[in-house]
Predict the structure.
Amino acid sequence: MNNEYTNAEVLSAVDKVADVIEEVGLELWRLAEISLGLGQVKTLILPYPIDAEKFDVLMVDAIVNGADTEFVYGPAADRLNEFGGIGARLYYSTRSAG
């Protein structure tokens, strides 16, 4: 499986998440902390360059919980910064609950 994404694909994904955040008013930072604590984060997504003081704790939590860390740059990082500077790919199941 190819895990390489173009900057345009990343920006499109960030835009989709941003639309949901604006619609429902989620606080991404808190959601990321909770998801990391529950082991639900597959990949923590952070903007580059990174503010180490701001993200050190989350990066350590990601490592401890077995999550990967991915950095985005350029327009995708700018857009991500508009919403707290953090994103995540979560584990999920396609199994039906019934």
